[in-house]
Each structure stands twice: as structure tokens, then as C-alpha cells.
Amino acid sequence: MILTEPLLEVRDLEVTFGHIQALRGASLTVGKHEIVGLVGDNGAGKSTLVKAISGVRPADSGQIYVEGAPATLGSPAASRDLGIEVVYQDLALASHLDSVENLFLGRQLRRGGVLRALGFVDRAEMRRVATETFVTLKMTVKDLSTPVGDLSGGQRQAVAVARAAHWAERLIIMDEPTAALGPVQTEQVGKMIRRVREHGLSVLVVSHDLPQVLDICDRVVVFRHGLAVASVASGDIGVRDLVDLMSGAEAADEEEL
Amino acid sequence: MSSLSVADLRKRILYRGSPALVWFTLVVLLVVFSAMAPGLFTSKVNISNILSDASILIVLAVAATLILAVGDFDLSIGAVLVFSGILGAKVMIAWDGGVGTGIALGLVVCLVSGAACGALSGALVAYARIPSIITTLGVMGLLTGASNLITGGVDLRGLPPELTRNIGNRSFGDVVSLPTIVAFVVAIIVAVIIRSTVFGRNTLALGSNAEALRRVGVDVRFHRMKVFALAGMCYGLAGFLSLAKYSTTTIAGHSNDMLQAYTAAILGGSSPFGGVVTVVGTVVGVFIPTTLQNGFVVLGIDPFWQQVAVGGVLLVAVFVQTYRKNQR
Ligand SMILES: Nc1ncnc2c1ncn2[C@@H]1O[C@H](COP(=O)(O)OP(=O)(O)OP(=O)(O)O)[C@@H](O)[C@H]1O
Ligand SMILES: [Mg+2]
């Protein structure tokens, strides 16, 4: 079913918040150079899975393998060091800082020589690289020195996506990257996801936009109540079937029989 | 038409922020006091007094600006100043070696104890996740009590006279005192740290969106603690400057410092909500309460009015900030 060699393998992840079991043994695989869609009803556990992989909220149990090697993703730094970048549902941008600073948030470029040791940032170089990144990704962010809090929702999203694309070495995970976007920008993000793959990365996209998921992804994984209930090549399934899988209509039908 | 442009103008003033407001206020104060007490207010001695009065407050307000940058408050400013000053004074009084060494030791003790107090508050805020207002309220009580226990509530005397002569009262051209120079150097260093270093940029990012910073792999708790420690070190330095200036501990004299420091910082344009600060604004902001105090004294107005005026000005500043935030 997986079309390429596996890059990320997640097995039997469990996450519990008090009485709520957000993940109940969820498993999923993303191949190299593969675009995988992750769909599921609200509260199915998609964001929880994303946070477990990114180390923001590590899983209570289960295993994660990156290129076959067991990985302990206990902190954001651990996941980052393995070349995994995430576009979070809330974007995780510092709204008072500009696009350039957000692109390099926590990973600022430094000046050379003594100034480097003193921790001086290289503003000019960061600006140059940021401009380059936005151009490569064919994104238009109007003014690089406007605080991102003053940008439109779409532009903010573009900054978050560009940050992930700039830093990712293996995998980009996007949690509803098009939720705040109009149709034109949604299309843009779709193109960008494909472009990222051409650069040799894998992408895991969480989305409620089922037609778009079927359009851009190679494969779709369906989550229901904290479990992966299906993994299908996107050519083999339609929106109607996905909705049935998400809502568990099929299961209900079976029970009725 | 005209109402539109008025609204536009108002918005512009608010967006440009209170740095404009603080400069304007300061100029108004200077003009008014100069007009009301021409020879007196503008005399060399008086200008020197204003600068000297401002010096300690600049150090404190710059530290308050750091704390505001991460979106916190520190009520323990005056308490740390007094406490570290007492420890420094104890050392200087007890030292029976060379005077210079004794004073240097006293400075180190002030800085280290200030940083330690800041680190304590910072650790409680960052790791125990107690809101900073409550944490520092507790630390303030703790240190005020400790200060009174150590001294029996009586100010320590017997500091080396060289401390005051060579540091506190050393003056250049009869106008700029050494403490004033130290204060400006501190302000410049902190301004550069915030503007141009990884530490400073992460400090602002922390105040803007701590979770975002955590998610890119920065240890935000440790960073918050470091910011508190750095601010504490500034309070300690202010404690030392206070010893040098008054040649005694001033146990009861710093209850108003916290109000003045935050007034200066917020008036200067630093946001009480984190993520946006301006050290230059803070320094200008310091001269508002200082000039008010001085002007009232010169004019023979009850200086208690200064507290009233400062409180009022603070409310205006916060109102402007809140208004700006809601406009976003
Ligand atoms: N920090 C938390 N504390 C308590 N419960 C949580 C927390 N985060 C998530 N949950 C719960 O875990 C379950 C899964 O949430 P999650 O955010 O992963 O869903 P989702 O599939 O991303 O939904 P959506 O499509 O709405 O984004 C939900 O029941 C949610 O209420
Ligand atoms: Mg979600």
C-alpha cells in the first residue's frame, strides 16, 4: 500500500488527557517523497498525533521510527533535529515580530567573529535568506518587516508554511494549513506542498478539505476516535467513502446487519 | 470629512505609540517648570540633581522593561534593591583590607545577590508556573522581612567615605555624575541586547508567544528565569548605586520604586502585555516622575503630589496601550 520506502512509522501511539483518550493505539506510516493526507472528524485525534510526532506533547506509549531507526520524540528539539517540521493548527507565530524573525524563530543566524560569540544576530543575512525562501516557494509576503500580527490570515499561514519548508530536512507536517484561506490561496498551498515534495521531502497534511486532500495526496489515512481506521491510495476512493469512514457509517451498517 | 481625518490622526498617534506621548509629556513638563521657576529649575545644580535622581531609576526601569518584554511583572524591585544593598553594605563595613577591594567586593555582592533574588522569582514563575505578580509579591515580602531582620529595621552606617566621594558623588563638569553615566551605559547595553542578540530576540518572542518559541525547540522556562536573573542583577546594581549616593542603606526609601519604574517603562511605550518594548522610551519615561518630583520641590509644592501625578500618568499610559491592543 505504501508506495515508497517508509520515512516515518508510528505504531500504537496512546495519548490520554485526564479521562479523554485522544489516541488509542494509533499507527501510521509516511513514505519517502510521499504526500499523505490525514482526515477524521473533529476530535478524532489528528492534532494530538501531530503533537506527539513533533514532541510538543509526547505520547504516553507507542513507538516512532524515522527511516527505520527508533526515535524518542520527547521534545520539540528532538523532532526538529530529525528534520521534522510542523505547521501547527494555530500557526505558532510570534505576532509582534516580523516575517523574517518568525522564519528564524529560535534559530537566528549569527554574525561572524566575536559578535557571533556574543550572540549578535545577522539581520541582513536573515532577510536575504527569507526573501529567497519566499521566492523559491512562490509566496508573496507583502512587507517582510511588518509584524505578522498585522498580516492577513493567508499571509500568516504562508509565513508558517515557509518556515517549515525552509527548515525541514525530511518531513513537513501540516495541521489544517488551508483552514483560514480563500480558494486562491488554498490552491497556492496545494501547489506548494507538491513543490516541497519535488525538493525531496515528505508531507503529512491534516485537512477537512476532502476534495483537496484527494487531489494533492498520494494516500489518505482516516482517523476515528483516536485510531487509524483506513489507509487508502487517493485514486481508489471518493469523498463519500471518506466521510463514511470518518463517521463510522460503515461500521454502524455492519452492526445493523 | 473632518471627523474622518481626526479619527485618522488619533489612530496614527496611538499606533505610533506612546514614545511620541512620552516625549511630548516630558517637553511639556520641562517648559512648564522652566516658565514657573526660570532661574531655579534650569540651573546647573538643578539639572545635575534631576540627572542624578534619575540614575538609579533608569537602572530599575530598564530592568522592568526586560520583565515587561516577557510579559511579566516584578513587584520585588525595591525589596531586592534594599536587600542586596544591605548585603553589600555588610561586606563593605566588615571588610578591613584595602578600601578599593572592599568596595569592589560590595559591588560583586550586590550584583550576585540581586541576580540570585531575580533567579528565585524567575524559577518560581517559569518552573512552578505561579503568575509573576503573585510570585514577586511573595518574594517582596520575603526579602523585606529578611532585610528588617538583618538590620533590626535600622539603616546601616559606617560605609567607607570613599564610596560616596569617588563613586556616588563623583561628578563630571558639575553636571553628569558617575551613577548617571553607569545608568546610561546599562541602558545602552540592555537596548543592544534586546535589539541585536539572540537572547534579546528570543526574549521578545517569549513575551509575544511563548508556546511558539517552545515549539521551535527553545527552553523557554530557562530563558524566562535568565531574564528575571538579569533584571535582578540590575536591581542589585541599583542597590549599590543607592549605597554610593546616600552612604547608607535606605531601607524605607524604595517602596515607590516599582511604581516609578513601571510608569517609566509603560509610559515610554513598552507594552504591559509582552513582546514590544523600547529601552529608549523607558529612559525618556524615567524623566517624567523625576522631573515632576524635582519641579514640585523647586516650586514648593508638597512632593506627595508627585505620587498622585505619577499614578495618573501611568493610568493614561496603560489606557493608551490597551486601546492600541484592542485596535489590532
Ligand atoms: N490539551 C488537551 N487537554 C485535554 N483534552 C485535549 C487536549 N488536546 C486535545 N484534547 C482532546 O483530545 C481529543 C482529540 O483532540 P484533537 O485536537 O487531536 O482532535 P482533532 O482531530 O485535531 O480535531 P479537529 O479536527 O477539531 O482539529 C479531543 O477530544 C480533545 O478534546
Ligand atoms: Mg486539530
From TrEMBL, chain A:
A Pfam family of this chain: ABC_tran
Keywords on record: ATP-binding, Nucleotide-binding, Sugar transport, Transport
Domain of life: Bacteria
Ranges of residues in domain ABC transporter: 8-250
Matches recorded under InterPro entries: AAA+_ATPase (IPR003593), ABC_carbohydrate_import_ATPase (IPR050107), ABC_transporter-like_ATP-bd (IPR003439), ABC_transporter-like_CS (IPR017871), P-loop_NTPase (IPR027417)
GO molecular function: ATP binding; ATP hydrolysis activity
Nucleotide-binding in keyword set: yes
Gene3D superfamilies per record: P-loop containing nucleotide triphosphate hydrolases
SUPFAM superfamilies, alphabetized: P-loop containing nucleoside triphosphate hydrolases
Descriptive protein name: Simple sugar transport system ATP-binding protein
Originating species: Nocardioides soli
Taxonomy of the source species: Bacteria, Bacillati, Actinomycetota, Actinomycetes, Propionibacteriales
TrEMBL record, chain B:
Keyword line: Cell inner membrane, Cell membrane, Membrane, Transmembrane, Transmembrane helix, Transport
Lipid bilayer topology: Multi-pass membrane protein
One Pfam entry name: BPD_transp_2
Subunit structure: The complex is composed of two ATP-binding proteins (LsrA), two transmembrane proteins (LsrC and LsrD) and a solute-binding protein (LsrB).
GO MF, any single term: transmembrane transporter activity
Transmembrane segments: 20-42, 54-71, 77-95, 102-127, 133-154, 175-194, 265-292, 304-323
Function text: Part of the ABC transporter complex LsrABCD involved in autoinducer 2 (AI-2) import. Probably responsible for the translocation of the substrate across the membrane.
Gene Ontology CC terms, in alphabetical order: plasma membrane
Subcellular location: Cell membrane
Protein name from the UniProt record: Autoinducer 2 import system permease protein LsrC
